[in-house]
Amino acid sequence: MQDLVEILILPLIGAGTITAFKGIMPRRLPGIWASFLVAVSFVLSVAADRRLGQLAAHHRVITGVLWNWVTGFGPTIHWRLYFDPLSAVWLLIITGVGALIHIYSIGYMHDDPGEGRFFAYLNFFIFSMLLLVLAGNLAILLIGWALVGLASYFLIGFWYERPSAVAAAKKAFVMNTLGDVGILLGLALLYVHYHGIGYAHLFRIFDTARPGSAFFEWSAFLLYLGAMAKSAQFPLHMWLADAMEGPTPVSALIHAATMVTAGVYLMTRLYPLLRLAPFTHQLIGAIGAFTAIFAASIAFFQQDIKKVLAYSTLSQLGYMFLAVGVGAYTAGVFHFMTHAFFKATLFLAAGSVIHALAGEQDLGQMGGLWRKMPWTMASFLAATLAIAGIPPFAGYFSKEAILGQAYNSGHLVLWAVGVLTAGMTSYYMFRLFFLTFFGKPRNAKLYDHAHEAPLVMTIPVVILGVFSVIGGFFGSWLNGWLSPAFHQYLGASTAPLEHGPVFGTVVTVGLAVIAFFVAYWLFVARGIQPQAGTTRAPGLWMLKAWGMDAAWTAVAVNPLKWLGDAMLAVERAILAGVVGLADGIQAWASDLAPIQTGYVRRYALSIMVGVVALLAYYLIRIGFIS
Amino acid sequence: MFLVWLLAVPLAGAIVTLWAPAKGAKGVAAITSFVALLGYVGLLFVNRAGVNWPWIAAWGVRFHLQADGLGLFLLGLNAVLFVVAILASSEDMGRIYYFWLLVLEFAVAGLFAAVDLFVFYVFWEVLLVPVFFLLTQWSGARGRTAALKWLIMNLVGSFFMLVGIVAVAVIHHQNGGAFTFEIAALSGMAIPAGIATWLFFAFLVAFWIKAPLWPLHGWMPDTYGESPAPVTALISGVLSKAGIYGILRVMMPIFLPQFRQFQLLLLILAAIGLLYGALAALRQTDMKMVTAYGSLSHMAMMALGIFSLTEAGILGTTYYMVAHGLMVGGLFIVLGLLESRTGTRTIQDMAGLNQSAPRLAAYFLFFVLGTLGLPGLPGFVGEYMIIQGLIQSQVVFAVIAGFVLVVAAWYMLRVFQAVMQGPARSSAIRDLLARQVAWLVPLAGLVVFIGIWPAGITSHAVPSLYHVMHFASQGGGR
C-alpha cells in the first residue's frame, strides 16, 4: 500500500510544486523536475510489480483502504486502492511511456512561455491516470476518470488564445461529462442493488448471478457509456480529432497512449459484469468494429499529419473494444500495450517533424524529409510497420491475437471488418509516411530549414521506436501475467491469447502488403498530391469525417439552444407577472401611505403586511380554539 | 456556549460598527466575523451545547437553540462565508452596510440553530430586513425594485408559514398535547387529513420562495443581478439554503405523510426547475445571470434529493447545501472581483482576460469546476448521493439529473472560456491582489478538503438526520 501511495503522490507533488513555484524556478527546471518524478514513479512501479509477481498466482491483489470518503447512511464508500496484474500493466505503461514523453517535452516545449504550466498539467495528468487505474471502487475510479478529463481539458486548451483550441477543449469536456454521468448512474445503480461498489465486493456477487437481466444490461451499458466517451467510440468520438489542438506530446501521452485507453481498462476490469450483460457485451464489440473501420475511412484523405494519427488512434481503439466484445481480454490489453509504443512513437516523431517545420502540420507542405531527419524517419517507419500489422513488428502480434479470437469465437462479421480495417490502416499510414518523408519537398523553404530534433527529443522517440519493433514479443509474458487476474472471477474463459487460422493471417498481412504497394505507387511512384480526391464525394465526405459534427449540432446542440431560448421567453413572462404583482402592491401601498417619501412608504408597507399577518394569526387562533 | 457566541458576537459587532469610523467599519466587521468563526471552531471541536431558555411562557415558546448535525455545518457555512464576503467588500461601503451584514449573520445563525418553530419564524422574518436594506442602498439602478420584490414575495411566503406554524401548534394542543412550538414535540403529530394538505402547502410555499425554486423564483433575477457581489454570494450561498433547510428541519418531521402523498408532484416540479434553470443559464449573456440560473437549477437538485425521500438523497442534500454554498459563494465573489475590474458582466464584451489576470482566471475556473460538479470536488459528492436516492425512488428523475449535469458543464465552461480565453480583445486588467488571494486560498482549500473527505460532514449529519429519517425510511423509497 505504502508504495502505491508513493507512486501516486509523486506526480501530484510535481504538479503542486511547479504550480506554486514556477515563477521562481529556473527555466529548464519544471521539465526536469516533472520528468524526474515520473521516472521515479516508474521505478517504483517496476518494484511494485515485482512484489506483486512474488505473490502466489491466485492471490495477486493488493488492496487497502486509505481513508473513508462518504459514510453515514446511504452510501458508505472509502478511498480504496486496488492493485492487481491488470492495473500493473497500465501502471507500467503510464509511468514508463509517460516518463519518456515528459523527457521529450523538455525539448519540444523549450521555447514556449507556458513551459512550467505545461509540466504541471502533465504531472497532474499522470497522477489522475494512476488514480484511475489504482482505484478500488467505481466512485474513486470516477474521480480519477474525471480528473484525467480535466487534465485533457487543460492541455487541449493549452494555447488558450486560439479559439479553435478553446472550442476543442470545451467539446472534449462536455462529451466526457456525458460519459462521466453514464458511470455515475451505473455505479449508483450498482450501489443501490448491492450496497457497495468495490470491485472485489461486486465481483463476488456477480459470480453467483445469472446473466441476462435488464438490470445488468443497464448497469453495464451505463458504465460502457463512460468508456465510450473516454475512448472516443462512435458516436462520441469527435472530440478526439479536435483534441489535436493540444501540443503534440499531449496527443502522444493522453490522446493516444494512455487516457483514451481508460475505457478499455474499465471494460476489461468489469469482465465479470460483461458476462452478465451479453447484449451490451456484443454491442461493445460491434461498436468497436464499426469505430475501427469508420475512423480508418476518415483517415484516408486527411491533410493534417496529426489528424491522420488521431483517426488512426480512434480506429485502433475500435480494435481494442472489438477484443473486449469477443472476450479476448488479454489480446485487448496486449493491443493497448503495443499501441502505446507505436502510437507514442508516431506522435512524437510527428512532433519532431512539426518542430522542424516551425509548427507546420499540413501534409501539403512536407515531403522528402528523410534526408534531414533520418532518426525520426526510422522510428516513424518502425511504428508505421507496427501499426500496419507487418510481422514481426509489435502491432502484428496484438492485432493477430484480436482477429484470431474474433474468428475463433464465431464473430465472423467483426473479424471481416477487422481484417479489412487492417488493410485500410496500412494504406493510410503508408500514405502518411510517404507524404511526410518521401517524394519531392513540397515547400522548399520549410524543407531547407528542417533539421533533426535535439537528442532530448530523439532519444525517447528512438527508444519507443525500438519497443514498436520488439513489443510483440511481450505477448506470452503478458498472457502469463494476466491469466491469474482473469481466472479470479467468472467471465473471462476466453481471455488468454489464441492463434487464429493461418489463412486469416495470410489475408490480413496480404492486404496490408498490397496496401503498402498501393500507397507507394500512388504517393512515391506517381507523386500524387495529398489534396487529390478531396474535392468531390466520397473523398470529400471522408475528409469531413462523414459530417458527424454537423449531425451532433443539428441533433443535440441546436435543440438545446432553442430550448434555452424558449425558457428565456417563459422566464420573461414569469418576471412580468411578478412585476405586475409588485406594481399593484406598491400602488396600493402608496395610496395608503400618508407620506410619500421613500423610506416611510416602505416601512409602512412592511408594517402593513406585518399587521395583516398578525391579524390572521389571531383570527386563526381564535377560530381554532373556540 | 459557543452557540450563543455565534449569535451574540455578530450582533454585538453590528452595534459596535455603528460607532466605528467610516473607514474602520470594514475592519471591525471583519474582526467580528472572524471572532464568530473562531466561535464556530469551538462549537465544532469543543462544545456543542445549545440553550433552552423560557421566552413567552403563555404561548409555550422557548428560546431553544441547538447545533445538531442538520444545522451544524450550515452554521459553519454561515461563519465562513461572512468572513469572506466582508473581506471581499469595498471599504467605501460605509458603516451601515457592515452593520446590516452583521445583523444578517446573526439572523441566519439563529435560523440554523432554532429548534423551536416560533424562534425559527422570528429569525426567518428578521433576516428579510438586512437584505431589504442592502438591496435598496448598496445595489444597482434597479435595486429598489429588487428590494421590493424580495420583500413582497418573501412576506407572502412568511405569511403562509405563520398561518401554518400557528395552526400546527394549535392542532397539537387540541390533540391533547401541551401548547408548544418545539419541533421535536410536534414531530409525527396527527393532523386532520383535510387541513393537513393545506398546511403542508402553506409551509412549502414559504420555503419554495426562499430557496427559490421554480416557478416561485420571481424575486431572484433582480436581487442577484442588482446586489453587490458579496451580498449575492451570501444570498445564494447561505440564505437560499434556508429554504431547503426549512423543508428538512420543519416540514419533514411533521408532514411526512404529505411528502409521500405528493412525492410525484414535488419531484416533477423540482425536475422542471432543474431543467429550466440549466437551459436558461445556457442562453444568458450576463455572467452573473448564468450563475444565478445555474444556482436555481442546483437548488432544484437539492429539492430532488429531499423529495426522493431516501436516506441517500436526504443526506446528499444535507451535504450539498454546505458544498454548494461555499462554491457558489466563491464563484459570485470571483465574478464580483472580475466585474469591478472590467466594468461589465456581458460575456461578449470580454475575452482573453487570462493573459493579464491568470490568478483570477485560476480561481474562476476552480469555482466553475466545483459548481459544475467535477468529481473530486464536493458538488459531485452531493450530486452522487442525490442521484443514488433518485435511483432508489424514481429512476427517471435520476436520468434527468444526469442530463442536467452535462448541460451544467456546458453553460459553466461557456462563461469561463468566453471571458478568460481566446484572443485578448478587451484591455488588460489587474490580476488578483495578494490580500485577495489570501482569503481565496483558504476558501478554495476548504472546498477541496470537504470534497476529498465528505465523510467529515456526512458522518456527523447522520445522527440528527435519523430523527428526520426514521419516519421516511418506513417505506419512503423502495
Task: Describe, in plain words, how this protein is organized in 3D.
The complex is a heterodimer of chains A (626) and B (478). Chain A is mainly α and 626 residues long. Chain A has two domains: 542 residues, no CATH class; 74 residues, no CATH class. In chain A, 73% of the residues lie in helices and 3% in strands. A two-stranded antiparallel sheet of chain A has the order 1-2. In chain A, helix 15 runs antiparallel to helix 20 and helix 17 crosses helix 22. The longest helix of chain A has 45 residues. With 478 residues, chain B is mainly α. Chain B contains 19 helices and two strands. A two-stranded antiparallel sheet of chain B has the order 1-2. In chain B, helix 12 packs parallel to helix 17. The longest helix of chain B has 33 residues. The radius of gyration of chain B is 21 Å and the shape is globular. The interface between A and B is large, with 69 and 84 residues.
Summarize the structure.
Chain A is mainly alpha-helical. Helix content of chain A is 73%, strand content 3%.
- What is the average of the pLDDT values of chain A? 88
Largest sheet of chain A, described in full?
2 strands, antiparallel
Radius of gyration of chain A: 29 Å
The most extensive interface between chains reads:
A-B, 69 and 84 residues
Domain tally of chain A: 2
**Whole-number average pLDDT of chain B?**
89
> Largest sheet of chain B, order of strands side by side?
1-2
Question: Which segments of chain A are poorly predicted (pLDDT under 50) over 5 or more consecutive residues?
Answer: 622-626
What is the global morphology of chain A?
A: globular
Note the overall shape of chain B.
globular
Distance between the termini of chain B: 42 Å
Helix content of chain B: over 70%
Task: State the distance separating the first and last CA atoms of chain A.
Answer: 72 Å
The tally of strands of chain A reads 2
Task: Please give the radius of gyration of chain B in angstroms.
Answer: 21 Å
